[in-house]
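Notebook entry, structure prediction.
Reason for the run: the old model in the group folder had no record of what sequence produced it. Starting over properly, with the input documented here first.
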Amino acid sequence: MRQIMTVFAFTFREGIRKKVFIVSTIIMMALLLILTAVPALIQKSETDEPESGAQEPSVTSKVCYYVDENGLIDNAIETLSSKITDTRFEKGDYSKIHEYKETIKTDGNTSLIVVSKDQTGSPFITVTNMDFMSGISSGYAVDVLSDLYIYNTLESRGIDKDTIEFAQSRLSYAEEFAGEMDFSGYLLGIVITMLVFFAVYFYGYGVSMSVATEKTSRVMETLIVSAKPSRILIGKCLGMGALGLFQFIFMIAFGTVCYKFFIPDGFTVFGMELTLSAFTFKSALFTFIYFLLGYMLYSMLNAVSGAFVSKIEDLNSAMMPVMLIELLSFYMGYFSMMSSGSNVLQKITMYVPFSSPFIMPFILLNKDLSDLDLAVSILILVISIVIVTVLSIKVYTASVMRYGKRVRLKDLYKET
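New structure, fully documented this time:
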């Protein structure tokens, strides 16, 4: 046990000091900060926007020329100015349309609205901007002018204003779901699944690289003298696992703090409120458990891959089988997330030990999983880890001190 703890402590200290750990942590923190700050900025911009007719039009550098030679839509400039307050609308000259367009080619703050007649005599609206990222919103401008044209037409036919306004009113709505999955749980489940996958992949690769580096640099010969190969393997995997768990918990905590400080109360996406209600103590606990178990499973396989090589250049090819298993398992879990309701694929992925670490956090956040299903999934994963660990220790012990020609599985089988 002492040998394991010595290797564990050394691996953890070395890993936390490496630039790749520090840089990756900073990058993930920055991404979380940006993702949680965007909703606050969106709500602030919507709050700061003046209400229709409540304030004076703001002074802006944006200008839109409005050309309606036939006078098809009355009071268009006044209505557009009251609805789109960040743009100054001016009456344009039909003879200068070409000149306006030449200006728009180089000036993103200038735009043009031309109203002409279509084949039925109704207004046909053409909006010209420099590109899709500049100028005014063509869809919103067309909606404003369409409502205004209908209003004017109905009023000219003797319909009273109250009836017209009622006919143009839009009903408010809220979207509800009868199933167990909600938007917040769905989004949070995908984010956490991605974090688990990249953490398992990244730190499993770290174990493999560490083993391969020590072997090819002959450092392993010194380590073997002071500790058994099995103790080295277990200590190294536990050290990298602790490092990964530390970063994983830190990112979850940092993301939660950012959510509390930056996400406005009641913030909605497509009419659905964004909350952390799905992230309960149970789901958080078992998410960490599945992360640890998934890491243990793949780290053992990656460590054996590192022990197989005699040159560091061969590491990627030696890791290819493990990488394929990991990617296939992740995509099996991911595709089962995309399908709604209970399905055979989701049942399979939650029991298969290679895929359960990637799908179970999502299921825990979005479904009422029975204790029996959870226990069976964990039991199968634990049994698989024990089997893989025993086999990995034997293969690692037999291959870690072999140099020269590439190690073959059948040779190792004869020795073990």
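Summary: Residues 63-168 form one domain.
The old model has been moved to the deprecated folder.
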